[in-house]
Amino acid sequence: MTGDARSDRDPENADVVGMWVTADGHIRQELRPDGRYDEARGDRRSTYTGRYTVSGSHLDYVDDTGFTATGDIRDGVLHHEHLVLYREDRTERAS
Question: Which of 22, 54, 60, 95 has its CA 20 to 30 A from that of 71?
């Protein structure tokens, strides 16, 4: 794993840096340029934190506790395990 999600990516890797959120806004995942992520759920901030790397449109996550997960960007949507997240600036949240 690398320390910087942006500098080690080649042009073929997806640009994932920013805030990703479920349609209902309950889960918010910030993917930072330094390769770290911070996930909030409901009113609970920093529910999960850790690091991530990007290979093409695939993401590998390692939680600070050692738990691992994966994600994939498909058609501009982040499919992270069982979650579907949208870029915050492109999300029209469901009422």
Answer: 95
